[in-house]
Specification:
Distance between the termini: 42 Å
Number of helices: 8
Order of helices and strands: EHEHHHEHEHEEHEEEEHEE
Number of domains: 2
Strand content: 15-25%
Helix content: 25-40%
Structural class: alpha+beta
Strand order of the largest sheet: 1-4-10-11-12
Largest sheet: 5 strands, mixed
Radius of gyration: 22 Å
């Protein structure tokens, strides 16, 4: 997979937000700053990662992809050349390798899903355990600067919402494949205003400055709240802390600040 460089590509929002259920990871995430980048294959939506590839490829397209992008071994390239020279169905057979290559990449890379807003009612229900969980405010520039592939930098971009699968030329136009593959969702999800951070799958720890704010859900267990606040502060981070409440006259969420440790 072609990696992007570490030059900041776009303007980030001032804060991005991570919705989380209380159990089992939210408090540990806050106090350790380890965030989990989940493989796209673990997502609930079966349409995640879908794209459409009907391109026609030349033999050189396959050679260039496996030699220059995948850095395939000489032994692998010999087996590829054998298919190209001796297999009448070489294009369809090699396209089948797209499936294997796609599955390998989807296991290797993980996604951290974020939003531009902490106030979405549906997201509180879907991702924060029906308002019993929390939302974590994150500094996107610190997030981006501390993600790594083989060198400093990473991918942090807004999701594009479309009606149809993105069309890609997987073996020919690698530059745009990642954007279309990992950053495209069905248009009905647009209310989420989602941004995605892409990194090698698994846990990655970030510095204390990453977390700017914490929002307790409207139905968060208040008996636990003082303990959580103490654990948060004792961990060395200094976020603003808010309590969510349901607006009395309309379908919206209000926040009131309950702790500030600058």
């Amino acid at each position: 997979m072609e990696e992007k460089n570490s030059i900041e590509p776009i303007n980030f929002p001032p804060i991005l937000y991570k919705y989380m259920p209380e159990w089992p990871y939210a408090l540990n995430t806050l106090t350790t700053r380890y965030f989990y980048f989940s493989p796209i294959t673990d997502f609930n939506d079966p349409f995640e990662g879908k794209f459409f590839d009907d391109a026609r490829y030349s033999k050189d397209d396959f050679r260039n992809y496996f030699r220059n992008t995948c850095h395939a071994s000489e032994e692998y390239m010999k087996s590829l050349e054998n298919i190209l020279q001796n297999d009448e169905n070489w294009e369809s057979d090699l396209k089948n390798r797209l499936i294997q290559e796609k599955e390998s990449i989807e296991k290797e890379f993980g996604i951290l899903c974020l939003s531009e807003t902490p106030k979405d009612i549906l997201m509180w229900s879907h991702y924060a355990n029906s308002h019993k969980g929390i939302v974590i405010g994150i500094n996107p520039k610190i997030l981006w600067k501390n993600m790594t592939f083989s060198k400093p930098g990473g991918l942090l971009e807004p999701v594009q919402y479309k009606k149809n699968y993105p069309k890609v030329n997987f073996f020919k136009e690698q530059k745009d494949v990642m954007d279309k593959w990992f950053f495209t969702k069905y248009e009905e999800w647009s209310y989420e205003k989602e941004w995605r951070a892409i990194h090698k799958s698994g846990l990655i720890q970030f510095p204390k400055e990453l977390i700017t704010s914490v929002y307790f859900g409207a139905k968060f267990n208040l008996k636990k709240q003082d303990f959580w606040i103490k654990q948060i502060i004792d961990s060395g981070i200094s976020p603003q802390i808010f309590q969510a409440t349901l607006n009395k006259s309309s379908y919206q969420i209000d926040f009131s600040e309950i702790f500030n440790n600058p």
